[in-house]
Write a structure and sequence with these properties.
Mean pLDDT: 86
Order of helices and strands: HHHHHHHEEHHHHHHHHHH
Radius of gyration: 21 Å
Distance between the termini: 42 Å
Keywords: Membrane, Transmembrane, Transmembrane helix
Strand order of the largest sheet: 1-2
Helix content: over 70%
Protein name: O-antigen ligase domain-containing protein
Low-confidence stretches: 1-13
Structural class: mainly alpha
Number of strands: 2
Length: 402
């Protein structure tokens, strides 16, 4: 009897191992690692040129995911992913036409992460293992970030990495917000739910150190708000609706400037260089968006082309949240962006620990997306990918039950 039970356990473990080594989890895992390697901006500091290899791997993984979705009969996920890829191509063509420049298709590769959800839909049966991999990668990223950010704080430079400077905060590395949020809430949920474990406390301290070294004031404030609400047990039900209302008011105030040329909500925070840069960018894109409200101005072929078209230096649509999304992706992009943001805010978790972590990270990134489109085009797109995959699989399950 004991031998039979032991054999059954071994067989189950072998079956789980075989399932994790199947095509779909491998593609999803490759996508996660490539996505982190690219959007962390640290890869060039470790191995120069690795970011290009990561971008190529991410693109190939998405292409494989679309092909697998068609093979598996995941028609809605496949069609949405193909539509996302086509949409990116269309926005590249729009900018090329408006600026009278040739299309640079390579400029659209970082935005193909919009279609990354298809990989998670394909491998959803192994979602626990995928989330474990993702959170493990997030912790590893935070540890590497702390080490490299310490070097930047000491020397002011770090070859190959994206170092911000130019204001009173001094030189600092860009923080991959999506992975930082996942690591923060993974450690926080584990410390709250389980017995005191110094290993998890050490991980939490490492993540908090990453937040401190990043000096990302707005993101840290939003993450702290969600963390406090979680510790108080106030991240469900009516609170999520109240946060959704606050989110709606905030983005309404930002989008209002598309109709009123004299309105610039970022003037309120133009007391430092970061706020002034956002106010400058908002003012520069207002007339362009007013002239092209449906299509936006599209995705630029390169930085020089964008500066020449806008007519001002140091303008970044990525700093303007939903207004920047509207400018770059048009009305359709704005609607899709808001749909994802509201899903992240309102979708409550089930009883699973990983579900709780994902829900808290998604809530944080969605609230932060008022001023940053990282949910769509940056590191936090990995969180949006998972939220969309969850929605699509839940929708399919409801249809099958009916």
């Amino acid at each position: 009897m004991e031998q039979s039970a032991g054999s059954t356990v071994r067989d189950d473990a072998a079956e789980r191992a075989r399932s994790l080594l199947s095509v779909d989890p491998l593609l999803a895992g490759a996508y996660v690692l490539a996505h982190l390697a690219y959007f962390s901006t640290l890869t060039n500091a470790i191995v120069p040129g690795l970011d290009r290899l990561a971008l190529l791997l991410m693109t190939l993984a998405i292409a494989g995911g679309v092909a697998r979705a068609l093979w598996l009969g995941e028609w809605l996920a496949a069609l949405l992913a193909i539509a996302a890829i086509g949409f990116v191509a269309a926005q590249l063509a729009i900018f090329a036409q408006l600026s009278d420049r040739p299309i640079n298709w390579n400029a659209g590769l970082p935005y193909l992460s919009l279609a990354g959800f298809v990989l998670f839909v394909n491998a959803w049966k192994q979602r626990t293992a995928m989330l474990a991999l993702l959170i493990g990668a997030a912790f590893a990223y935070c540890a590497i970030y702390v080490a490299l950010a310490g070097m930047v704080a000491a020397s002011g430079v770090l070859g190959g990495a994206l170092v911000l400077a130019g204001d009173d905060r001094g030189p600092r590395l860009v923080l991959a917000n999506g992975y930082a949020a996942l690591a923060l809430f993974a450690a926080l949920v584990r410390c709250r739910r389980g017995a005191v474990d110094w290993r998890w406390l050490a991980l939490l301290i490492a993540v908090l150190a990453a937040f401190a070294l990043a000096q990302s004031r707005a993101f840290s404030a939003v993450a702290a708000l969600v963390a406090v609400l979680y510790l108080l047990g106030l991240t469900g039900g009516i609170m999520r609706w109240l946060l959704a209302i606050a989110f709606t008011v905030a983005i309404g105030g930002i989008l209002f400037g598309a109709a009123i040329p004299t309105w610039n909500p970022f003037d309120v925070i133009a007391i430092d260089l970061s706020g002034a840069a956002r106010a400058n960018g908002y003012g520069a894109l207002q007339p362009l968006l007013a002239n092209h409200p449906l299509t936006g101005i599209g995705l630029p072929t390169d930085r020089a082309a964008f500066d020449a078209f806008v007519g001002r230096p140091f303008v970044y649509w990525e700093d303007l949240g939903p207004f920047g999304i509207w400018a770059a992706f048009g009305a359709i992009g704005l609607i899709a962006y808001l749909f994802i943001a509201y899903r992240c805010i309102l979708a409550e978790p089930d009883e699973g620990r990983f579900s709780q972590i994902l829900s808290l990270a998604a809530l944080t990134i969605a609230l932060y997306s008022v001023i940053s489109p990282a949910l769509w085009s940056g590191s936090a797109s990995i969180v949006a990918n998972l939220v969309l995959a969850c929605w699509l699989t839940q929708r399919r399950s409801r249809i099958e039950r009916q």
